[in-house]
Amino acid sequence: MESLEFNKVAGALLGTALFTMALGILTDIPFSHAKLAKPGYDLPEAVEASTGGNAVAAVAAVPFATLLASADPKRGENDTKVCAACHSFDPGGEKPTGPNLIGVVGREMGSTSFAGYSDTMKGFGKKWDDEALNTFLTKPSDYVKGTKMGFPGEKSPEKRADIIAYLNSISGGAK
Ligand code: HEC
User: Fold this and answer.
1) Which of 53, 68, 86, 97 has the fewest CB atoms nearer than 10 Å to its CB?
2) pTM of the prediction?
3) Shared-domain flag, residues 12 and 72
4) How far does residue 117's CA lie from ligand 1's centre (Å)?
5) For 98, which DSSP code?
């Protein structure tokens, strides 16, 4: 009798234990995760700052034509004070340090009476237009290799647009 009682209690305990174990296994299932290849979350990769590339290309987000459309020749005139150290902006004016820039847009490159042109400039065989001026003024030595223009370049696309709008305005252009 006593052993039967014991068996009942033991059976009840065992049953409870089994049930708890089964519950444990079952409840684990919804919470189990597929193993991650890499621990942690997938975060967006940091975009490497390009070191090699052309800074100009990165800035080209706003097309130059758009900048030029909203450029201000008056501001440009002010920005060419630095150019006037070498260039004359007076009709017929001459300076020994740089060619006259009146009428430069649409003019053959290296074609004034200025004596100090580099061979590259004289032999470039192209006319100055907005695009060429933009590239040249970004970094003169990149566009005209061996240029004698001792000016490192204007980094601001907005300023270049203003300057080119001004150069257009003194070249008989409509801009
Ligand atoms: C330190 C003097 C100097 C400064 C400053 C300078 N230039 Fe020049 N520039 C020159 C010389 C010299 C040349 C001729 C370069 C060559 O033949 O390689 C030249 C050439 C040019 C030409 C080509 C002209 C042609 O007849 O083909 C343009 C356009 C020009 N410069 C624009 C500018 C502008 C715009 C600025 C100001 C943002 C400027 N330059 C600042 C000295 C200068």
Assistant:
1) 53
2) 0.72
3) no
4) 9
5) B
